[in-house]
Amino acid sequence: MISKWFKLSPPRVLVLGFAAIILTGALLLMLPISHTNGGTLPFVDALFTSTSATCVTGLIVRDTGTYFSTFGQVVIMLLIQVGGLGFMTMATLFSLAFKRKISLKDRLLLQEAMNQNSMEGIVRLIRKVLMYSLVIESCAAILYSIRWAFDMPLGRAIYFGIFHSVAMFNNAGFDLFGGFRSLTMYVGDPIVNFVTMFLIVTGGIGFIVMSDLIDFRNRRRLSLHSKVVLSMTSALIILGAIVIFIFEFTNTKTLGPLSWGEKIWSAFFQSVTPRTAGANTVDIGALRQATQFFMIILMFIGASPGSTGGGVKTTTFTILIGAVFSMIRGRSDLVIFRYRLAQERIFKAVTITMLSLFLVIVVAMVLSTTEDVSFLSILFETTSAFGTVGLTMGITGKLTVIGKIIISLTMFAGRLGPLTLAYALGPKKGKELYRYPEGKMIIG
């Protein structure tokens, strides 16, 4: 049994690869040079921080801006970059740099890591991923640096610009401002709000969609995948902003005291950030319960396939909604943008959603017995960890050791995806050579 398990399939390589990066990061963060006080960080806290960075989440038990030294912050930034783009993408970068041939096994791993249906053009896609990431992060770092040069020394502004451009593009909620404040001091700042939301959205829609958009001038058409991602992403952002604006308009602890412009910026920012980013410009714990629950739904949906984000993904949610409407209308086929989807896609969407829902429910139930906080806070934290979001209602630092380990495992499962973990941990099944007779039962 053990020998069979170690015949490493692509899902197993991804699981072990991410685990190795997390463990390496945890050991580096435990070093005295990683902390401002020179002490030793407990292994559980180091493991939690490394997992959060590698899984591009942003949940923290130690304040990144004040507790960690420059060395520790750079380690966290590198973990975010490697975790966001994927360790196989980074390995391919070195292979291309040293002009090594990309083997068939490497291509299979890249196909699994990028959630692609085939290996065709996979190396070309990786080149685009690396180029797009470098260009977007560099431009954002420049804009951040110019803006923050008015608030701090130029060298510090440049450092902050680089760190936050990497963190936000990879949809990780880490920040260096200290005091667990995130971006609350820039609630009405147009530059910080726009650049951050642009990074979150571009990192969350996926590299395939970005490639489609850039090539649109030549091809004059978008793929079905890109159409679904862009339409659902836009719909969720607009709907989220409207709901948050209405629910929080009179809340004196969030949007209430703000001007109209700041209210609009804040509503849109808090609608974008549950797409697995984790930054916030208002106190999440001060939001009304209806808003918090609505954000739980947004976090569960998450970003899009082939992106730096987590969640069940926008395409999965679109298929589920489409299947419901098709059933209501009495149609046997699911048609989206004049394309019929195979039954296999619908089954996969249902499987991913049910596995994810099961994981979130079980983790929330277990944490409700180990942590002395409200259930809504626990459900929010659990969904944030699963969706690799990083938003919190303020309970992360209060978690018990067991709670930190459980949330770490949830972030790990959320980054890789429950289906990938199921494939990695389960035995490989051969193709069935027969079918059972069809049965009937009453539903609904």
Automatic annotation (TrEMBL):
It is found in: Cell membrane. The keyword Magnesium does not apply. It is a multi-pass membrane protein. The chain crosses the membrane at residues 12-33, 74-98, 191-216, 228-247, 293-325, 346-367, 373-393, 405-425. Pfam families: TrkH. Keywords: Cell membrane, Ion transport, Membrane, Potassium, Potassium transport, Transmembrane, Transmembrane helix, Transport. This is K+ transporter Trk. It comes from Paenibacillus segetis. The lineage of its organism: Bacteria, Bacillati, Bacillota, Bacilli, Bacillales.
